[in-house]
Fold this protein.
Amino acid sequence: MTTHGGFEPVFCTIVPPHVLDRLARAEDPALAGPARRTLQRDAFERTQRRLTTVIGATAVAAVPEGKPRRTVHDARHGTDLPGHEVRGEGDKPGKDATVNRAYAGLGATFELFLQAYRRDSIDGSGLPLNATVHYDRDYNNAFWNGEQMVFGDGDGEIFLDFTLPIDVIGHELAHGVTQYTANLTYFGQPGALNESLSDVFGALIKQYTLGQTATEADWLIGAGLLAPRVTGTALRSMKEPGTAYDDDVLGKDPQPATMDDFVRTGRDNGGVHINSGIPNHAFYLAATALGGHAWERAGQVWYDVLTGGELRQDALFADFATLTVKAARERFGDGEELDAVSKAWERVGVRTL
């Protein structure tokens, strides 16, 4: 098997399958139709991802150290990737706001990892950042396919344009960082850690772009993505998992905040989008206990664990938590950082070894 750097890419979407499954059963065809087509398209792309890992991904050229190379393509509501190139690195903004948001989001993600963690693009070696917008028709998702970002326009009924929340862009690109580092298995607790790490860095990219402290941040993932008819604020809440939405059509946000409510399920790759609420909440607790800019201390600890080489592909929550305690001590000593991280895991019911 040949993949980028020897790692196995996975197909990762921002909208969980359980949300689309519920929409697909709606009585209103305006809601059910797009959800069913999105599920079908996701299944196809997931298969394509597996095939790419077998035949080998296309080689990409390196870029100058510390400089992004962004390319945004327009699928023109088709599904052939990458589509028609519409904006390259250094090009001026055009009239298409979706293209401009995608370009800016790629840049914001590159900037956070470079400035906060001295990481040169998502692979650490200047990987070009590519994105495709206007994918398919009424496509209710955004995904990282192991090589690039893809954004749907939403159906306008439940979801709006997927480039609107910058943390959605950051979340999906962060899957690429995980792919090139710990390469966490996308199932069960390691899969939930994979999803949580993307939420963590997606939130940090939004906070970095807005210049927000941990106290000022809303800690919502996908705020602004839900259409006005939906009773909800976002896809997920790191501050209060389980409260992002409570809607007649979407149902209630199923995320738990602690291990007491851990969800055991065979769906969604063992609940990767659901149980990620537990490590998400632990990060929120650690970051807000420390205050200031969350990317500087709590984010640094999480980044150290992700990239440190000790995190196994099949790591459980307790394994990850233990490594964060170790990383906090090694980087900051026996101070408030260690205390904040230790207490955060204790509050969500995850034991450190």
Notes: Residues 250 and 332 are 43 Å apart (CA to CA).
